[in-house]
Structures are given as C-alpha cells and as structure tokens.
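Translate sequence into structure tokens.
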Amino acid sequence: METFNNSIVDEMRRYIGQTVTVFTTSGGLSGSGFTGVLIAADCNNVKLLCSIGWAPSCPIGSNCIRGLSPCGINNSGFNGFGNNGCCCRNNPLGSVTIIPTCAIASFTHNAI
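Result follows.
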C-alpha cells in the first residue's frame, strides 16, 4: 500500500492549484468524492480547498445597511438571510478537506 500512496501523491502533486475530485474508500457521502482545488499533497494527507470564503461584507466597520448582503439576495424570508439581515447561506468561512492518503481510492483531473 505504501508504494500506491507514494505514486498517487507524486501524480497528484502535478495538479496543485487545479480542481480535482478525490474518491475515498469510505462509504456514504464521502465515498462519492471530494471536489476542490488541490492545495497540498504529501505522503500522509491531501488537502483540498472545497469552498472559498466570502470577502468581508462590511470592511469599514459594522455600519452596513440592513438587508443588503454580498450575495445579492434581498431580505425576503428564507433566501439565505438570518434574523439580523446578514447573508448566511452555506459557510461564509469556506472549507478545507484533509484526506489521509491511505483512504484514497482514486482521483480525477482535467486532461489539460
């Protein structure tokens, strides 16, 4: 198994900075693969940036206009807004996935 991990990591390193999908040997949703920008790959782990966080919605302080948001949705019920009028859809912080190389079944990348 060690040879497989080293060879797949060597291959994956060629695609750092590109979007890849990594399939794991686990079941459930994680077995369906993780898609993101490959940040790093070493003998132990592979790191993917799966969603990028938002820019600050009010970079000059907390005096933003209520009901406006960086996602461009108006404050009309359940359109991603919380009770305070801030846009709260998904995760504004972004997400990084770290996958142990021993759990990688395969990965895909663009041909170019």
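Note: The chain has one helix and five strands.
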